[in-house]
């Protein structure tokens, strides 16, 4: 059995990959609690740790140290120029985030057709993949919470509340004006990106929505597209099985 770890800036996801090729997500934990989470798992017959990280180097070092102390081999997955049928668009390929890379790799195994992947977390990433597996590039933009935070921290009289809504109508109060505006900005970026992708691909792409920020998109719009939640872990599982 192998342990899969997706390390982000604030949280880590941990999954176990069984010998039959299936994986089970064990949970999402604060990065600062990583050692406490991993130590009891290492006594359960783990024969390798496979991880990818977009977080601070301290998290990477913690994983390496824990594996070394437990005498368990460890593999850190990094972005490549080409692998698993995907060709990276970046000239300096190593600078494409490994989370985006693993998402592209995972999707390519399932869809052999033009695809757009929209991942909304702290940041929104928008990636375009051609039918032959060529990554055509993408965008990075603030996610919903980051947009909200930026406005709230850099103005004096704009405020919000905790009520959740999916509307993007014109608001008649400040709190809804900010929330609706940020949702409209997300949707506008995605719609414009899709129009550009259609033009570049000369085809209607499969659209994949992922990440916790998808909940801020209008359900009436988002329901027309596929939703996936663990694409990075799926990519990690692929590397764990094949490398």
Give a structural overview.
It is a single chain. The chain is an alpha/beta fold. Among the domains are: 2-76, Nucleotidyltransferase, domain 5 (2-Layer Sandwich); 112-144 and 176-230, Nucleotidyltransferase, domain 5 (2-Layer Sandwich), CATH 3.30.420. It is built from seven helices and twelve strands. It has helices spanning 34-41, 57-69, 98-110, 144-153, 174-201, 219-222, 231-242; strands at residues 2-7, 11-17, 23-30, 48-53, 74-76, 82-83, 86-87, 115-120, 123-129, 135-142, 206-210, 226-227. Strands 3-2-1-4-5 form a five-stranded mixed sheet, sandwiched between helices. The protein starts with a strand and ends with a helix. The model has no long low-confidence stretch (mean pLDDT 94).
Sum up the structure in keywords.
243 residues, alpha/beta, Nucleotidyltransferase, domain 5, 5-stranded mixed sheet, 7 helices, 12 strands, 26% strand, globular
Give me the secondary-structure topology.
Layout: E1 2-7, E2 11-17, E3 23-30, H1 34-41, E4 48-53, H2 57-69, E5 74-76, E6 82-83, E7 86-87, H3 98-110, E8 115-120, E9 123-129, E10 135-142, H4 144-153, H5 174-201, E11 206-210, H6 219-222, E12 226-227, H7 231-242
Parallel strand pairs: 1-4, 4-5, 8-11, 11-12
Antiparallel strand pairs: 1-2, 2-3, 6-7, 8-9, 9-10
Helix pairs in contact: 1-2, 3-7, 4-5
Pathway: Cofactor biosynthesis; coenzyme A biosynthesis; CoA from (R)-pantothenate: step 1/5
EC number: 2.7.1.33
GO cellular component, one term: cytoplasm
Query: Which H/E pattern describes the elements?
Result: EEEHEHEEEHEEEHHEHEH
Distance from first to last alpha carbon: 14 Å
Major beta sheet summary: 5 strands, mixed
Q: Give average pLDDT, whole number.
A: 94
Form type: globular
- CATH top level of the domain at 112-144 and 176-230 is Alpha Beta
Strand order of the largest sheet: 3-2-1-4-5
Please count the helical segments: 7
GO cellular component, one term: cytoplasm
Protein name: Type III pantothenate kinase
EC number: 2.7.1.33
GO molecular function: ATP binding; metal ion binding; pantothenate kinase activity
